[in-house]
Amino acid sequence: MTDYRYLIIGGGMTAAAAVDGIREVESTGGIGMISAEMDDPYDRPPLSKGLWKGKSHDIIWRKTRDKGVTVHLGRVVEEILPGQKHVVDDKGDVFTYEKLLLATGGKPRRLVFGEDHIIYFRTLADYRRLRALTEPGRRFAVIGGGFIGSEIAAALALNGKEVAMIFPGKDIGDRVFPPPLAQFVSDYYRQKGVEVLAGEEVIGLEARGVQRVLKTKTKREIAVDGVVAGVGIEPSVELAQKAGLNVENGIVVDKFLCTSLPDIYAAGDVASFYNPALGKQIRVEHEDNANAMGRMAGRNMAGKSEPYHHLPFFYSDMFDLGYEAVGELDSRLEMFADWKRPNEEGVIYYLHSGRVRGVLLWNVWEQVDAARQLIAAPGPFSPRDLKGRLPAKT
Hints:
The protein contains eight helices and 27 strands. By secondary structure, it is an alpha/beta fold. α1 (13-25) packs parallel to α6 (287-301).
């Protein structure tokens, strides 16, 4: 039996940020971390961005062990016993805790075919596997036209690979971007040499020698050297459900990030929390939330009582295109595009009932805080009110 004052289940960015939060408040309490991965905590965004542009692997490491943490790698917690304050892992080892954090993240959604021939891109191990395939490989398929799919397709193309992007939607990012912008992005990818197969659905995969052949609903066959899928994740809530925690689209936490059972906290991709600016329960799967929420969970575990009211932002790089965004970005909402230069620089506002619910800053920078203030404002706002509103004057 191993005893810890603070025990963290998960080894991602949220877990690393929680360690930072604990250490801001308490410098000595013992911290244990149990991670299913074989790597120490690292930053995920460079896996689909910077590492493909030649940046060193040294930039990704969170150096968690330097903060007095015992990291148990390659282990999966199978049971939490809240009454005894014990957890049991897949090797039968027992860990005790005073405060427990669930930073279990999410698991990639998997297709019903392809088995291990498809890389569901999420971890450093996935990056290494894809990198290894690119050494001899020339042509790759990316299934999915969303956040991860668009970044991986751009990364592979920038590294001189032939890329086919396959997804059922009309355009890249069409669930998020206004239709004209989504069409522009699709055309931009085509100009960069990416084969954009929109409105297409993959229904099977066959191995032929070292190649993989994707089969589509329209009877197309696409032969490639590697297949990557980015079709979203599901929050890893099974452990929480088994322990009797309140789960609804993630592990439900209060404003202090405590779950429905005392001394058990949750943060990051897996946590569902109430956001005052949006006036609703949300779950966010991006870096800013992982870092901010993880840190706050750590501070509160160590004795603080600080509410988490942060509205996270996210960002992406796609070839020479870039954006930052905050709030709800859903192309089903009312949208107002305030372009300085159409499709090159501008702000997209997402509205519902006269309130701003989300802001997309397209090649516009340093306006995230101003966007947050706008989302928190009661409104009502009309397009005329929003014209020229951002960038805010400093």
